[in-house]
């Protein structure tokens, strides 16, 4: 099986693969072909693909360099997965400064997409916690970048989609914890208004907030969901046990019909009704709290051979609730929406990243099985709504937005392109910068 | 805490094994020929929990350097509890067949350097009267095959040497393990199509650590290779010679 696909398994791409195993090594000689670093392929669309060209596989850059247990800083090679970092740092009372919904991504991928987590409203993006990294460019140069030295290259590389060169190692700050546990509350809500109210109330006292929202329910149940908030448990809890390896694997590509609008609706209803009470309190290990989907290896295969899309956008707070309702309405009517739709508010902590996705506002992420034209048509319609609200779509999840929309939503793209390494390129970048 | 010498320390299999020992808080000594790589591995092992990590640069093809470097190593480390010998090269069979100078290199690196280094180690451990030598041969040693008989011959030489050495060392309380990996996904096999039989180096590493602690004589890693090689050895030659293995 071709391992070098993106998580959505769409679009398909063919690339020459070159492995990089040593941080002091050189970039492979790819001749005429352009290169792109490849982490663990957890991006959904084509930002980690380089169709017809070549990829530099970074999973062999998997060594730690230094861990300062007192200061809480970690320096490691760029291919180290977050999962291995947790195994190292949690027993010593440290945690990732922020983490996406899967622990199977690399540090290089976390920087290149300037990823965000459930604590964006207090911690900002991953890039906010990066102290330094080394960038290897195709001219053989190695540049140590920090917020102060080579700061422009630093900013361009954070959220730089792997285009500015290969990050060989990075150093970043960790977060102090007492133990491996999270104290959480889940609260049922009905409608975007109530979601916004809960978000505002929780931003102060809760470090992690995220909500699941039902994108299949109509009428009275429209935009119902479950708001989840959590804090690291206090010192009275002792265990620093790390997570276990996933036990289940999706054994084959499921037939496409397994995911129809009926099964999606049923799933959403069950998920919502599973929680009886309005509010539930629990203490849970970090693994199910942050990474519920990691319990099943290769769960992306349930979407079958044709793959699937994720659509994630952010719209500013101003008028955001109305936009959100409009979009949810459209998705509900389309009956294409998916199992897990996630909604969250972003805070105003600014990332150093030039091209970073998060900005203050509301973000929604949903999966869509690939049903061809009807699905992409729906996205085009959604783009229009997001665009007119002054929002943008997340490149790490995108496989289809138009050059026009990308360039409008990211007007800094031209300034950014000055920093692209002449030998580097990606399927995504060629697509969104193509002349209309 | 044990002191473990790893020769060919940044071979994928050896590095994964070193990581297991590091996480247990042992002291490690690394031999290899690239300073940059040795340093990278050293830093990683330290972060993972090794008590201490030293490294020495050596081109193992220079057999005359083996005994002196071992002496230097012992001066630095005191005793050696476990020595894992892992370096090797896998030639492209078609390139080797017609060129004796390449055959000579293959036999030199995969057999003679083992004979030289294992002798130096044995002479030292014999005096120490304890310790374990683990050396990596291969399933390729078990039967000459059209597709890799030159590498296989060198590994068979090493394998026989390792087994014989076990007998010599038995009365000195020194144990010798012969490690026979099957196909492993490492840079050595990067050019090969990865079928279902390929194992990850991490799996082999766990097997090596366990074989050493259980004082096994010969281990096939992963274990199913014992059966595969049993069958392979049982096929009559008049059939075997026509196969394309
Ligand atoms: C289940 C799931 C949940 C997710 N949840 C979130 C979330 O909550 N928040 C969020 O922000 N994202 C989320 N994501 C997306 C994921 O975090 C990002 O796509 C991440 O960048 C993937 O990292 P990767 O290591 O797999 O890199 P890849 O996907 O392989 O590559 C991503 C980008 O990083 C570049 N890159 C990789 N390594 C290097 C390097 N060494 N030097 C330079 N560039 C490099 C690549 O060129 C590419 O542009 C989620 C993904 C999944 C599958
Ligand atoms: N991979 C398999 O399928 C497989 C199967 C059976 C047995 N084995 C055996 O397992 C052992 C480890 O191999 P691997 O798969 O982990 O491959 P690997 O990662 O390619 O490691 C081989 C190592 O040997 C080192 N080496 C070779 N010649 C050397 C020399 N003259 N001096 C110093 N170091 C030298 C190499 O160092 P440089 O990088 O500096 O050259 C390299 O680190 C080998 O003995 C191999 O034959 C492997």
Properties at a glance:
A: 436 residues, alpha+beta, 5-stranded antiparallel β-sheet, 12 helices, 20 strands, 24% helix, B: 245 residues, alpha/beta, 7-stranded parallel β-sheet, 9 helices, 7 strands, binds flavin-adenine dinucleotide
SSE blueprint and pairings:
The complex is a heterodimer of chains A (436) and B (245).
Chain A: E1 16-19, E2 35-38, E3 54-57, E4 64-68, E5 73-77, H1 82-89, E6 94-95, H2 107-112, H3 120-123, E7 130-136, E8 142-145, H4 151-157, E9 166-173, E10 175-176, E11 181-190, H5 192-203, E12 208-213, E13 224-232, E14 248-249, H6 261-274, E15 279-285, H7 286-290, E16 296-297, E17 308-315, H8 320-334, E18 341-346, E19 361-369, H9 373-388, E20 392-393, H10 403-409, H11 413-417, H12 427-432
Parallel strand pairs in A: 1-3, 2-3, 14-16
Antiparallel strand pairs in A: 4-5, 5-9, 6-10, 7-8, 7-9, 11-13, 11-15, 12-13, 12-18, 17-19, 17-20, 18-19
Chain B: E1 3-7, H1 12-23, E2 27-32, H2 35-48, E3 52-57, H3 66-77, E4 82-85, H4 93-97, H5 100-128, E5 131-136, H6 149-170, E6 174-181, H7 201-213, E7 218-221, H8 224-234, H9 237-240
Parallel strand pairs in B: 1-2, 1-4, 2-3, 4-5, 5-6, 6-7
Helix pairs in contact in B: 1-2, 1-7, 5-6
């Amino acid at each position: 099986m071709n391992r070098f696909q993106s998580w959505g398994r769409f679009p398909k791409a063919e690339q020459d693969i070159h492995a990089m195993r040593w941080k002091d090594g050189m970039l492979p000689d790819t001749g005429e072909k352009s290169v792109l670093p490849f982490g663990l392929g957890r991006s959904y669309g084509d930002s980690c693909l380089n169709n017809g060209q070549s990829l530099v596989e970074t999973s062999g850059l998997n060594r730690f360099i230094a861990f300062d247990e007192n200061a809480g800083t970690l320096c490691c090679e760029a291919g180290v997965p977050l999962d291995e970092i947790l195994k190292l740092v949690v027993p010593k009372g440290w945690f990732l400064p922020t983490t996406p919904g899967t622990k199977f991504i690399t540090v290089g991928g976390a920087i290149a997409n300037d990823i965000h987590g459930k604590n964006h409203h207090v911690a900002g993006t991953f890039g906010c916690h990066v102290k330094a990294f080394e960038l290897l460019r195709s001219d053989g140069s190695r540049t140590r970048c920090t917020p102060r030295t080579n700061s422009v290259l630093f900013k361009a590389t954070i959220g730089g989609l792997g285009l500015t060169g290969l990050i060989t190692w990075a150093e970043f700050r960790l977060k102090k914890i007492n133990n491996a546990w999270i104290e959480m509350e889940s609260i049922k809500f009905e409608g975007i208004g109530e979601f916004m109210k809960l978000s505002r109330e929780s931003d102060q006292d809760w470090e992690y907030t995220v909500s699941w929202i039902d994108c299949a329910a109509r009428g009275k149940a429209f935009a119902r969901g479950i708001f989840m908030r959590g804090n690291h448990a206090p010192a009275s809890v002792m265990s620093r046990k790390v997570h276990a390896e996933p036990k289940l694997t999706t054994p084959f590509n499921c037939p496409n019909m397994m995911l129809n609008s009926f099964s999606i609706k049923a799933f959403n209803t069950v998920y919502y009704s599973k929680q009886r009470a309005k509010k539930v309190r629990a203490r849970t290990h970090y693994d199910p709290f942050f990474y519920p989907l990691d319990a099943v290896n290769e769960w992306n295969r349930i979407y079958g051979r044709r793959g699937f899309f994720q659509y994630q956008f952010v719209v500013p707070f101003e008028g955001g609730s109305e936009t959100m309702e409009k979009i949810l309405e459209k998705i509900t009517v389309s009956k294409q929406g998916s199992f897990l739709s996630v909604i969250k508010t972003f805070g105003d902590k600014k990332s150093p990243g030039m091209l970073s996705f998060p900005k203050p506002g509301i973000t929604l992420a949903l999966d869509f099985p690939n049903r061809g034209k009807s699905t992409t048509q729906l996205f085009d319609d959604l783009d229009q709504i997001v665009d007119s609200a002054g929002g943008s779509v997340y490149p790490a999840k995108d496989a289809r937005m138009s050059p026009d929309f990308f360039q409008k939503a990211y007007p800094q793209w031209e300034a950014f392109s000055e920093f692209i390494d002449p030998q580097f390129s990606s399927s995504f970048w060629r697509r969104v910068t193509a002349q209309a | 805490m044990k002191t473990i010498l790893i020769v060919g320390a940044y071979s994928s299999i050896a590095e994964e094994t070193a990581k297991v020992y590091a996480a247990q808080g042992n002291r490690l000594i690394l031999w290899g020929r690239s300073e940059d790589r040795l340093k990278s591995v050293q830093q990683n092992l330290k972060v993972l929990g090794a008590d201490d990590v030293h490294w020495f640069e050596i081109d193992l093809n220079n057999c005359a350097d083996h005994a002196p470097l071992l002496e230097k190593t012992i001066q630095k480390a005191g005793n050696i509890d476990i020595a894992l010998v892992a370096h090797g090269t896998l030639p492209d069979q078609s390139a080797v067949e017609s060129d004796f100078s390449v055959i000579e290199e293959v036999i030199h690196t995969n057999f003679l350097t083992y004979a030289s280094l294992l002798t130096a180690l044995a002479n030292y451990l014999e005096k120490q009267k304890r310790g374990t030598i683990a050396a990596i041969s291969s399933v390729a040693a078990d039967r000459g095959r059209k597709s890799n008989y030159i590498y296989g011959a060198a590994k068979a030489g090493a394998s026989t040497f390792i087994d014989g050495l076990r007998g010599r060392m038995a009365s000195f309380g020194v144990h010798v393990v012969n490690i026979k990996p099957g196909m492993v996904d490492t840079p050595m096999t990067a050019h090969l199509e990865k079928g279902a039989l390929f194992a990850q180096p991490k799996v082999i590493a766990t097997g090596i650590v366990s074989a050493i602690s259980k004082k096994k004589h010969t281990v096939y890693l992963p274990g199913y290779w014992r059966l595969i090689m049993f069958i392979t050895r049982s096929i009559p030659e008049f059939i075997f010679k026509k196969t394309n293995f």
